[in-house]
Amino acid sequence: MSKWNTFATSCVCITLLVLAAGDLQAEDGKVYGEPLTGTDTIAISELLDNPEPYLGEVVRVEGLVTAVCEKRGCWMSLAGDEEFQELRIKVDDGVIVFPMEAKGRKAVAEGVFTKIEMTLEQTIAYREHHAQEHGEEFDPSTVTEPMTFFQIRGTGAVIR
Questions:
Q1: Selection from 119, 107, 38, 30 nearest residue 75 by Cα
Q2: CA dihedral 36, 49, 134, 105 (to 10 degrees)
């Protein structure tokens, strides 16, 4: 066999292995939204501890699903790799619907890492809405500072 044929055969084999690995990933869980394209997973702690370099960038994270939007399935929260850390994956209503059964399962998600900065009034409204959803008492006077948080504007996820 010539060097060219050996090279071509090797390329075909590598391509088939890469395609097979992609199929295994999809079989490993259910895909929601767009198929995942990235290969490098960033630790949630890295994003939250050092957010600036990642703002506006497509990132890929993984973690245990700790919560899912009960009304529309339009977001899910993933536990970070450090205790008490979570990162929300938010999608447009109806574009992707995360199932309630995802809670407690592992997920890999991709999307654009964003910073949300609220005014004091927006923060009060957000906290009031959260309290109503969870049947909790709410006193607006307890909110004294605007809220800032990070989330991923999700494009796709695999839930295992």
A1: 107
A2: 40
Domains in the chain: ranges and CATH: 30-159 (2.40.50.140)
Task: Give, for all 160 residues of the chain, the pLDDT tens digit.
Answer: 555 444 444 443 443 333 344 444 444 899 999 999 988 999 999 999 999 999 999 999 999 999 999 888 999 999 999 999 999 999 998 899 999 999 999 999 999 999 999 999 999 999 999 899 889 999 999 999 999 999 999 999 999 9
Give CA–CA dist 111/113, Å, rounded.
Answer: 6
pTM recorded for the entire structure: 0.77
